[in-house]
Amino acid sequence: MFTRVNSMGIFGIDAYSVGIEVDSSGGFPGFDIVGLPDAAVKESRDRVRAAIKNSGFALPKGKITVNLAPADIKKEGSLYDLPLVIALLSVSGQIDADLSDSAFIGEISLDGNVRRVNGILSMTIIAAKSGIKNFYLPKENVREASVVNGINVYPVESVKALVEHLMDKVPIAPQKAPEIKPQKQNFYGDFSEVKGQYAAKKALEIAAAGGHNVLMIGPPGSGKSMLAKRLPSILPDMSFEEAIETTKIHSVAGFLSEDESLITHRPFRSPHHTVSAVALTGGGVIPKPGEISLASGGVLFLDELPEFSRSVIEALRAPLEDGKVTVSRAAGRVTYPCNFTLVAAMNPCPCGYYGHPHKECTCTQTAVTKYLDRISGPMLDRLDIHVEVPPVEFNELTAVANEETSESIRKRVEAARKIQQQRYKGTGISCNARLTPSMLDKYCVMTDAAKKTLEIAFSRLGLSARGYDRILKLARTIADLEAADMIDTKHITAAVSMRNLDRKYWSNR
Ligand SMILES: Nc1ncnc2c1ncn2[C@@H]1O[C@H](COP(=O)(O)OP(=O)(O)O)[C@@H](O)[C@H]1O
Ligand SMILES: [Mg+2]
User: Fold this and answer.
1) Which pLDDT tens digit goes with each residue over 355-379?
2) Which domain holds residue 212?
3) Which of 82, 102, 200, 335 has the most CB atoms in a 10 Å sphere around its CB?
């Protein structure tokens, strides 16, 4: 007797079809799983055996051979417990139903209850694409699956309940598609709560408008963390495709809660400075997306940047340029997307008060230099915008001034983004931060006066070619925020002012 049951697997953040093939023949009793199973799949054999018995069924008699196809991809995890049980009950006639357009996924506990697995959203998308009509999956995962159209998704609590459904005894109702709620962008707070700090707010607006990375320097308590947390609230609303992409990553990482379906707010990730390179960029024995991928579509905030280990900071360089990260492991390489805006914050020195208007800095010059030198030149170069966040004055904090709301700032950001999308249609990029050097001439056209200003700044500040490119891109965004076609003097001046902090603090470079 032979049976094949459909299931799904995950590679990177995308899914592929897996077939669970079971052959049961007479002869000596045995239970083999082939098709490159890893240790978890072998353990699955024991769970499956117990679950079948404890659900009131019996393992087929004689020799059982299970093949997980395709055999050339290493399948990991315990997600094949459920399809395996269904295949075994089917091949032995304990389930009598046509399963050809159904797929199954889920880990099983010894008592036959079905437990959650990771990556369900991607699996449901591919299952629907490949013509599967009914997808049976753990109850805890069913909400994330229910956003996919064209497929019935069924919450499965236990083996017994599923068999009763398949045998038309006690039907399980398919999960209804959720209502996608209007996006709540001020998830992490609103800009109107931040008093003063107009330069920093403007810098973040420009960052949001052009997709630029930002470095904030200022003493403790000046509001750097507060400001960074509010950057997602001025980024454009997420499109459905972006929401799917971000949710897929969180789903594969196992970070979606039972009541979550689609992530519709832009993520804000703030890993501690003790984070390891693997936790930041992804990887591990069973590879998982790291913080930079979880931040995809949103903001990665690195607070106290100099406290991060140098190797961790350097591991960010390539992903920052590419928008994706590749992690190598024994069985091959996995690529995860990581499109995020980086916001880094730091104190100007170890004690935090270097250059403070009222407080004394207790650090030696050597200590300050050493502290600043933890950030390499190339890393500094990748942070397009540098802005000082001075301490807030008491009268600013107590003033009842009406600060601008995130929604109002976001309108300007969205307008500037729209201009960029039009301009870059068909070029493969969507924002100014991604302009390549060869595109600058075409897209960053300056007035004659602006050219002169940039020329003067270039020689006076001793800019590198890279620094020159960064200023042009930044000026492009500043001009877009004003809907100006050509880059003018004031745009150049504003851009230069956001690029000269490295000269104040890192003057020895
Ligand atoms: N500009 C500001 N407006 C309102 N509150 C502020 C401002 N700056 C700082 N605060 C208050 O001070 C606290 C500490 O700010 P925080 O963002 O953690 O500073 P930093 O990260 O620069 O050390 C905030 O939680 C907030 O209550
Ligand atoms: Mg802070």
Assistant:
1) 888 888 899 989 988 998 888 888 8
2) 191-430
3) 82
